Amino acid sequence: MKKIYTLISVFLISFLLVNCGANNSVTNPSASPSGKTTDVTSAKDITSFSIVGTVISESTTIDESTLSIYVYLPHGTDPATLDNLTPSIVHTGASINPPNGLAQNFMVPVDYTVTAIDGTTKTYTVHVSIANSSSTKAITEFTLTTTTYPTGFTHNVCRKGVMSVTPVGGGSPVATTNIFVALYYGTNVLDLIAGFTTDGAAVFIGNSQQTSGVTHNDFTNPVTYTVFAADGSHTNYVVTVEVAPNGGPPPPWFLGSDC
């Protein structure tokens, strides 16, 4: 009988130790708030890129959509210095090639390949240029083109944006940073292609650089375009679209025209 009691005691002690261990387990520090472990082995992003040393970069834009990095040197920088510039790079992943801190000839675009812990890679192309003194940063023309046919059409339709307002009481139209585009009934606003003319150096939506006549965007809600001048200053333009209702002639607010 004493032997049986001893076995039962050992069993109970073992059971309690196992449960205590389970209840006091430590969550993996890399786990997400949902409790699932976050996989960092595939991370391979360049998060910062600048030029250091004798010549120091003025601004940098990283465009993840095209894997392009645009670095601007101060106005007046000697172009001859572009053949020997030293980059300072911050990245995720296991390694980057060419290595951080190794001088490069940036008179031509330079590719940087980031390798993740799991061995996958991502290649960025770095473009270095010298900023000029221009402060121009206007969008002078804006259009939207459909990627699917609107109701009743057998082709894609391009519509011009209205970029000016007439003052109360009359007078010449005044340019505005609010762009209005009226679209035909049945237009799919989830996927439209903008065309624009600008005297600025670059155009962005958020961190994504825009290419006129190429880049697709969702215009369900107003979209802000940021135009950067060569001197680093910028202007925001807000594009709002409205689709005509079904049936009948276009309402009075249906301004603008086909391209």
Notes on the protein architecture:
With 259 residues, the chain is mainly β. It has two domains: 46-130, Immunoglobulin-like (Sandwich), CATH 2.60.40; 139-243, Immunoglobulin-like. It is 8% helix and 38% strand. The chain is built from one helix and 17 strands. The protein has one helix spanning 2-23, and strands spanning 46-52, 59-63, 68-73, 86-91, 95-97, 110-115, 121-130, 139-146, 158-160, 162-165, 174-183, 192-198, 202-205, 208-209, 216-217, 223-228, 234-243. The strands form four sheets. The protein has a six-stranded mixed β-sheet, with no helix packed on it. It has a five-stranded mixed β-sheet with strand order 2-3-7-6-5, with no helix packed on it. Strands 9-8-12-15 form a four-stranded antiparallel β-sheet, with no helix packed on it. A hairpin with a 2-residue loop joins strand 13 and strand 14 (208-209). The longest helix is centred in the first third of the chain and has 22 residues, at 2-23. It is flat. The N and C termini lie far apart (99 Å). Mean pLDDT is 81; it is low at 1-38.
